[in-house]
Amino acid sequence: MEDRRELSHEHGHEKHTIHSEHVGSEHGGVDYERRDANPKKILIFTVTLVAIIAGLIIGLSEYFLFVTDAQVADAVLKKEDPRLRDLHAMEDEVLNSYKTLDAEKGIYQIPVSRAMEVLADEAFRAQQTSK
Question: Would you tell me how many other CB atoms lie within 10 Å of the CB of residue 112?
Fold first, then answer.
C-alpha cells in the first residue's frame, strides 16, 4: 500500500508525485500521523489498567489485614514470658507495700491506693477549713 501525494509549488504549477517515505524527510524526519487514534482500544486499555490496579490494591489490602491479624493473634495467644511475669510481680510488690525510705527525714513508702486516700482526706480537710 503505497501512499502517493501530489504537491504544487508556488513558483510554478508543476506537479510532483512523491512517496510517503519521503514526506517530512527534508525536515529531519518530522511527520504527522496518518490516522487517528482508536478510541475503543484506548478505552479498553484504560479500563483494563484500572481493573488491574484496583485488583492489586484490594489484594494487597487483604494480604496486609491477613498478616496483621496473624501477628496480633500470635502476640495475644503467645505464652507469657517468665521474665515479664517476674517484672510485673516486682512492680506490684513496689506499688502495694509499705517501706521505710529515710527514717531520719520521716520518708516512707506506702501503697498507691493508700496514698490516694491520704491525699483525698487532706484535700477534703483543707477545703472544710477554708469555708
Answer: 11
Instruction: Express as a percent the part of the chain with pLDDT over 90.
Output: 44
First to last CA, the chain: 109
Checking phi first, is residue 77 left (phi over 0); if not, alpha (psi -120 to 50) or beta? alpha
Domain boundaries of the chain, sorted by first residue: 4-36, 81-131
SS3 labels along the chain = CCCEEEEECCCCCCEEEEEHHHCCHHHCCCCCCCCCCCHHHHHHHHHHHHHHHHHHHHHHHHHHHHHHHHHHHHHHHCCCCHHHHHHHHHHHHHHCCCEEEECCCCEEECCHHHHHHHHHHHHHHHHHHHC
Cell of 75: 502476640
* Digit-coded pLDDT (tens) for 85-125: 999 999 999 889 999 989 999 899 999 999 999 999 999 99
